[in-house]
Amino acid sequence: MSAMRGYPAMTRAEFRLFRREPFSVVFVLAFPLMMMVLLAAVFGNSRADARDMKNGMLIWRGVTPANYYTAASVAVIVAALGLMTLPINLAGYRERGILRRFHASSVSVSTLVSAQLTLALVTFVAGTVVMAIIARFAYHAMLPKDVLGVVVALVVGTAAFGAIGLLLAIVIRSSRSAQGIGLLLFFALWLISGTAPPRAVLPTGLRDIGGLLPLAHLVTAVQNPWFGFGWSATDLAVLAAYAIAAGVPALWFFRWD
Amino acid sequence: MHAVSAKLEGVENEWRSENVKRGQPATGTLVVEVEGLRKAYGPVVAVEDVSFGVLEGEIFGILGPNGAGKTTTVECVQGLRRPDGGTIRVLGLDPTTQAAQLRQRIGSQLQDSALPGRLRVAESIELFAAFAHDPVDCDELIARWRLDDQRGQAFDSLSGGQRQRLFIALAFVNSPELVFLDELTQGLDPQARRATWELIQEIRQGGTTVVLVTHFMDEAEHLCDRVAVVDSGKVVALDTPQGLIEGLGLPSVVRFTTFEPDLGWLEKLDVVESMTQHGEAVEIRGTGPVLALVASELVAHGIVPLDLRVDRPTVEDAFLALTGRKMRG
Fold it and tell me: A151 vs A62, A224, B24, CA distance in Å?
């Protein structure tokens, strides 16, 4: 009963807090958007580029660079929230004794994290809409061909990066360290996951490493339905595996103080 | 003269038996039972060996200096920390394995906790009420803890005293049978402190048992039915505040002035431990009903000082005697 009233109450509180401090996620939304605009401006939206090959792969996955970056940048928002916003928020909550306060009043980890992830998911959907509209007007990029497929990819990606963020929040003690480490992880992932240079142009070693990490899978999982290539079951499965592999120990070892 | 002394002896004996009675353990239903509690953080032993019981309906104090292990003790009792050793039962539950059940029945005001900075007072109370099986009326709670004017104020903008009142209010949001208040009046001004004491007494009248962690002697003396004095991770005494003082046989000091130079007969009283005279000023240290006995003896000798007064020992003196150090500083 308390869980049933607890989750909506906590979610509403998180939405209120977000509304009162919307700039807390400005980087998370603005950075991917800015990168999409800049990278699409650099590489353009020419049909001729769609067939470019490198290392035996289609550089732009058979679509124009602007389309490529629009869909990829949606995945970047998810990664930024998971690797930065979530661990920074949770470490800050713990540092200030907010988690202790919640813990003593029957708030469960899953309720707390579900509320945060619900807010994150709504942010992603809003970010995706903004991204698609701007790309449409600026570069005549396509709108998602399979909206449901994109939403499913976002949900599974949120679970994976939410779990990773939660695990980071446990490993990293302070919100300041969480900022530093989160930022570092985020940029490393961003550079080797096909979200900055396309994966086809990366040296083999880096491409292989990127291929093991979750962001590359999220990029494909979002791009495929966006471009009308169908759902990518393999990538969704890898993301789900990440969600479980990071989420189970994170919930198990969660520390309130 | 002999008649007076014999009578006085009788009074003293009566007082002694009264004192023995006070020292007896109180009886009733135990809502908290702690036996041999031990908790270390790495090499630092915070709680070495703590045992006590809290009776239903009482205000039980845990008194000690900072770092004595008070907070760790109550955190273990509330199921917020896992003890390294010993047994704990709270309302018939084991806090290490039945913490979720226990938390619905107890209220907690924690030291060093906070709320999200932009969350407002009324929103916080409603949020926490949503997690309670048996929540109280939020508006009533806000009014009781005088937070009406702060309803729409964000946590970050509250003063120390307002935050403290909010945290105390949050401890009562789930209609608890037992509340733990850790440094109840920290940050409150003297007036708010008095008001808070009155509310705590009112809450106890309503049947809620209160466990109060404090390093304020006057708070323990004023509010608590019984007090456990904790020092360096151990309970060094457990009694009523009055019993603590009397059990230690701490002296009262009786002072008066008189022109009578020879007061040797006063020292013959059993209750008098020592007497010093500096000119007209007389200072007598003694235990038990020293003031009454000295006064009656003075009157019997035809001496009626206008400035006869007594300084009784306080819980602070008892603490000093028990731990060999002052509470503050």
Answer: 22, 12, 70
